């Protein structure tokens, strides 16, 4: 089936098998290997991307379901050599060790912050509960998301700029 999908701001038209998962289309056809596969069974969240602005586990979406949609991946966040504030906050707060969960964790955090720009610890934990990390114990991830919220808040002031 022929699909046209916009990924990180660039439009692609491709013929895909109806059974092709979005995550495999992104990685294998488009080379967007920043989006990773941890389980392939919609449990770990490592493959999280945005589909028309909502976070989805791209191993649970068919590529044909993204036809006509806008997909955002971790690879579209940094601009002009500058990390996105959520990426920067993960770096600053040592919120990753092996880094395998990090692309999905960041994409899910962005979705959470779009819905709740000032989440408390509990709200962050609930917001990322579908994303598993085997390394960090989550404490620094929660800290990073709250730090990113602080820096992304409108009117946070020049000292909040990154
Ligand atoms: Fe998609 Fe684990 S690879 S949820
Ligand atoms: Fe290793 Fe999260 S940093 S799985």
UniProtKB/TrEMBL annotation:
What protein does this entry describe? Carbon monoxide dehydrogenase
Lineage runs: Bacteria, Bacillati, Actinomycetota, Actinomycetes, Pseudonocardiales
Q: Which GO terms describe its molecular function?
A: 2 iron, 2 sulfur cluster binding; metal ion binding; oxidoreductase activity
Q: Which UniProt keywords apply?
A: 2Fe-2S, Iron, Iron-sulfur, Metal-binding, Oxidoreductase
Ranges where the 2Fe-2S ferredoxin-type domain occurs: 1-77
Pathway(s) served: Alkaloid degradation; nicotine degradation
Q: Which Gene3D superfamilies match?
A: 3.10.20.30, [2Fe-2S]-binding domain (1.10.150.120)
Q: Could you tell me which species this protein originates from?
A: Amycolatopsis antarctica
CDD domains from the UniProt entry: fer2
Under InterPro entries, the record lists: 2Fe-2S-bd, 2Fe-2S-bd_dom_sf, 2Fe-2S_ferredoxin-like_sf, 2Fe-2S_ferredoxin-type, Beta-grasp_dom_sf, Diverse_Oxidoreductases
- Name any one Pfam family assigned in the record: Fer2
């Amino acid at each position: 089936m022929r699909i046209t999908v916009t990924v990180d701001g660039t439009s692609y038209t491709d013929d895909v098998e109806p059974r092709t998962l979005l995550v495999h289309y992104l990685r294998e056809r488009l080379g967007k290997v920043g989006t990773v596969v941890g389980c392939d069974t919609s449990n770990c969240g490592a493959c999280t991307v945005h589909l028309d602005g909502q976070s989805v586990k791209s191993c649970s979406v068919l590529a044909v379901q993204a036809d006509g949609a806008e997909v955002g991946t971790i690879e579209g966040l940094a601009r002009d050599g500058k990390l996105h504030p959520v990426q920067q906050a993960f770096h600053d707060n040592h919120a990753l060790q092996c880094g395998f969960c990090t692309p999905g964790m960041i994409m899910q955090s962005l979705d959470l912050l779009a819905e709740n720009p000032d989440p408390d610890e509990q709200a962050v934990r609930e917001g990322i509960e579908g994303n598993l990390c085997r390394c960090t114990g989550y404490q620094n991830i929660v800290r990073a998301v709250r730090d990113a919220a602080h820096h992304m808040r409108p009117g946070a002031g020049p000292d909040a700029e990154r």
